[in-house]
Amino acid sequence: MGIRFDAVTVAYDGNVVLDALDLTVAPGEVMALLGPSGSGKTTALRAVAGFVRPASGRVFLGDRDVTDLPPHRRGIGMVVQQYALFPHLRVEDNVAFGLKARKVPKAEIRTRVAEALEMTGMGAYARRHPRELSGGQQQRVAIARALAIRPGVLLLDEPLSALDAQLRSGMLAELARLHRELPDVSILYVTHDQMEALTLADRIAVMDKARLQACGTPRELYRAPANAFTASFVGNANLLPVTVGASGAALGTAELKIDTSGAAPGASATLCVRPHLVGLGDGPNRLTGTVTEIQWRGATHRLYVDVDGHRVMADLPELRTPPAHGESVTLHFASEDAVLLPAGVGDHG
Amino acid sequence: MASATLSTPAKAGIRAPAVPAWVWALPPVALLALVFLYPLALVVQQSFQPDTGGTSIRPYADVFASEAFREALWTTVWLALASTAGCLVLGFVLALVIAFVPFPGARAVSRFVDVFLSFPSFLITLALLFIYGTVGMANGLWTDVTGAAEGPFRFLTTPWGVLLAEITYFTPFVMRPLLAAFSQLDTAQLEAASSLGARAPRIVRQVILPEALPALASGGSLVLVLCLNEFGIVLFTGAKDVTTLPMLVYGKAILESDYPGACVVAVVNVLISVGLYGLYRVVSRRAGA
Ligand SMILES: Nc1ncnc2c1ncn2[C@@H]1O[C@H](COP(=O)(O)OP(=O)(O)OP(=O)(O)O)[C@@H](O)[C@H]1O
Ligand SMILES: [Mg+2]
């Protein structure tokens, strides 16, 4: 079942926290809502679940307009960061809760609870209370509980952020497996962690300041970000102010041969190059500057270079003889690795 | 090194020789003994000393044999149980509304509950008298409108009047711990329940009520004990034929000057209170509260 936001606006006390969101999640698709804290991700998710009422706009589940439907009639699975298990109920009764509320026959409840627990690898813990489980196990139970009602839509609000890094990557793989087993379930996955979004999502919706900034496949967002905010939030980016010329662009005195189709000569624009695509030494597009900082990161060296007052980052395979602090170096990048963004879209750097 | 010093402060030699812990317990225990245990002991002692002299269980035999005592015992117990049940139901419903139904002024109402707790119990009874008493507002309105000589509201001097007054007065004692418990409740649980398809009644029964049980138990047991010992409300309703144990103590001691008898009733009253409290502790510990 798909999800569709149609110009959904949410305001608290006249404060707009979600501004005319238009977004469609296709049936069976995993959509990540990615953005910094306070950007309105949770609000968007709660509008789907029915816990906030949009000031304007409609929310659709499949073809059904659910904007005016109370949460208990939407048939949505929801998992939140703090698990929200019922502490006085055993794991199996937690999972059975939604089935009982829906008056599913007793015999069927038993098989569906077992099935949901099996799917999340919690079959052995059915008789335990939530307080007798680890954080990761509790989150599995919460997922089993949400899946037991066989929802068409699964909403996940930072489900892994209470877990430690190691457990998180394990659970991420679990979620990917679950989605392969349930290919018809649409998933809306709220996170502020770009790794989670890049790993799990078919498409990513990038949010900032109550607005949708960009939406696309991870590859699209990474290779050709629509604006500076997206470029810097999805992966790292060097964002350099350039002036468009006749057959390239100029950064200060440096002439860069890049694709400028769509930009008028003489206009200002922002050049985006990923740090790992910047090389040391001479090449097609040259930038010369002084090294301001060198960080050794195991497999790579991160160089910060001051080019005409602009900071350029370069991630280089570990250098045998790294340049010294204050040394003058030349950097280069391939023309096809650079993306020209319209200037002034987003003021993040 | 630092941790070693910390764990053996006595060796540091800075402080004077430590005073044994039990010394600190002496003042409170002495105070407790003086103002509470000693009078209690006197009451118990008096209850074994009939007016005829000597020490015997005669006063107990006499009191237990009397019809008035047995009636007062029954009245006390059923009134206390019924009031407690009423307070629990009413308090739970009111606390639910205050905590979960968003309405303007919910905060003010919940503040008022705190203030209400500080009111003396007779004040409520007085208020009820003004409204439902023989010459109260309700009856006055009735006689004005119908021209009848007397109004129909005369339940205030019956046990039902006492029950109403006790429920009115003691309900906030149940609401207090309930509101505290509800404010601790994770709203994410309520939202999870409703997205799983549960309507409000099911959420109340299966999510809120189980979490509220310890608060209900503590509020309920407090109200039960307070009701067993309530004196002011029963006196102020002016219900002549409603005699509870505290009223009986008052009657025997002040009106009949039967001190041993009064002390016997008092001892029984104390034993019931302490017994019920002990029962509550056992039950609540079993429940893991
Ligand atoms: N109940 C509320 N009342 C008033 N303001 C709220 C309420 N809930 C959220 N907000 C505001 O709405 C904005 C968006 O909040 P939201 O929870 O959607 O952010 P988020 O993107 O999920 O952030 P995070 O990553 O920190 O969870 C925030 O500025 C927040 O202060
Ligand atoms: Mg959030």
UniProtKB/TrEMBL annotation, chain A:
One Gene Ontology molecular-function label: ATP binding
Top-level EC class: translocase
Domain ABC transporter: residue ranges: 3-234
One Pfam family in the UniProt entry: TOBE_2
E.C. number(s) listed in UniProt: 7.6.2.9
GO cellular component annotations of the record: ATP-binding cassette (ABC) transporter complex
SUPFAM superfamilies with a match to the protein in the record: MOP-like, P-loop containing nucleoside triphosphate hydrolases
Annotated keywords: ATP-binding, Nucleotide-binding, Transport
Organism: Streptomyces griseicoloratus
Protein known as: ABC-type quaternary amine transporter
This protein's record includes keyword Transcription: no
Listed SMART domains: AAA
Transmembrane segments: none
InterPro entries from the UniProt entry: AAA+_ATPase, ABC_SmlMolc_Importer, ABC_transporter-like_ATP-bd, ABC_transporter-like_CS, Mo/tungstate-bd_C_term_dom, NA-bd_OB-fold, P-loop_NTPase, Transp-assoc_OB_typ2
From TrEMBL, chain B:
Keywords: Cell membrane, Membrane, Transmembrane, Transmembrane helix, Transport
PROSITE patterns: ABC_TM1 (PS50928)
One Gene Ontology cellular component annotation held by this UniProt entry: plasma membrane
Domain ABC transmembrane type-1 stretches: 73-280
Main subcellular localisation: membrane
Gene Ontology biological-process annotations: 2-aminoethylphosphonate transport; transmembrane transport
Listed NCBIfam families: PhnU, PRK15050.1
Entry protein name: 2-aminoethylphosphonate ABC transporter permease subunit
